[in-house]
Design brief:
The protein is an alpha/beta fold. Helix content is about 40%, strand content about 20%. Strand 1 and strand 2 form a beta hairpin. The longest helix has 20 residues.
């Protein structure tokens, strides 16, 4: 289901005295499903999966502020600010509790939403979700510390543009691809990736389905296992043959089957 022109809209939210345009796609009727996309992409990444779910309910996607066709956040947001924005959006769309489907960065927002505003959430589907901090091996910590020191030193002692250029090159040796490509969103990226959402998970009482690709390198399967252990009511499914992104494209039919089964089981529980 690629949304038709009738399902596309822009909503203006008032956040802390700032007006913010949010690009939204809202189609269908029935139980609301909210799809939250990953970092560095936009809502179109969910279109292949949404096509398999056509007729399942009211399907809602958005471009997070800073991505796609939405405006830019007024400051360096963390997951709480993004989740608060989602709440305002749901108010304007007049939805009831939603089935929340979050991929990667969108999973972070889904977790924060379920923890801070549980009345908004009917159930959680976390697909290759981010949100847990990685343990950095000692040798990598030492390398990072050394390179950062060299970068600062080069900037302070080398004249003209040479120092900053070398500093940028050195940081490129240790920075992630997402960090390097973040551009104006870099302060938000740094803030978000340094949030450890693990301590929030035990308090989330909503049913959760965790779906991971066995070959995921960006959010490895151990993160799914850890989230399953921390969430009170969660089931984890590992899909062979898929990585972090292909699970939404080539794996959409398997994911669709799992989501439908989870949804039908959840309907038997009180909201």
């Amino acid at each position: 289901m690629i949304p038709s022109a009738g399902g596309l809209s822009g909503i203006t939210l008032s956040l802390g005295g700032h007006s913010l345009h949010v690009h939204v796609q809202d189609q269908g009727t029935g139980v609301p499903w909210l799809f939250l996309h990953g970092w560095g992409v936009d809502s179109t990444t969910f279109w292949p999966l949404m096509e398999t779910l056509n007729g399942q309910g009211r399907l809602i996607t958005l471009d997070f502020p800073g991505f796609g066709k939405s405006g830019f956040p007024p400051e360096a947001w963390g997951t709480r600010e993004y989740a608060g924005m989602v709440c305002q959006l749901l108010d304007q769309l007049a939805t009831g509790p939603c089935m929340i489907v979050g991929h990667s960065f969108g999973g972070r927002i889904a977790i924060r939403l379920a923890h801070e505003w549980p009345e908004r959430v009917r159930g959680l589907v976390l697909i290759a979700s981010a949100g847990l901090k990685r343990e950095i091996p000692f040798r990598r910590k030492l390398r990072i510390t050394t390179i950062r020191g060299l970068a600062r030193l080069s900037e302070s002692i080398l004249p003209g543009p040479t120092g900053p250029k070398i500093k940028q090159w050195l940081y490129g040796r240790i920075a992630s691809r997402d960090y390097l490509q973040a551009g104006e969103l870099r302060p938000i990226f740094v803030k978000v990736v340094n949030e450890d959402l693990g301590p929030l998970l035990p308090a989330i009482q909503k049913p959760a389905l965790l779906i991971w690709g066995e070959h995921d390198q960006q959010t490895p399967p151990w993160m799914g296992r850890r989230m399953q252990a921390l969430l009170p009511d969660a089931r984890l499914v590992l899909l062979p043959g898929f990585d972090h992104n292909s699970i939404l494209i080539r794996g959409r039919h398997q994911v669709n089957h799992l989501i439908r089964k989870f949804f039908n089981e959840d309907l038997e529980k009180p909201v």
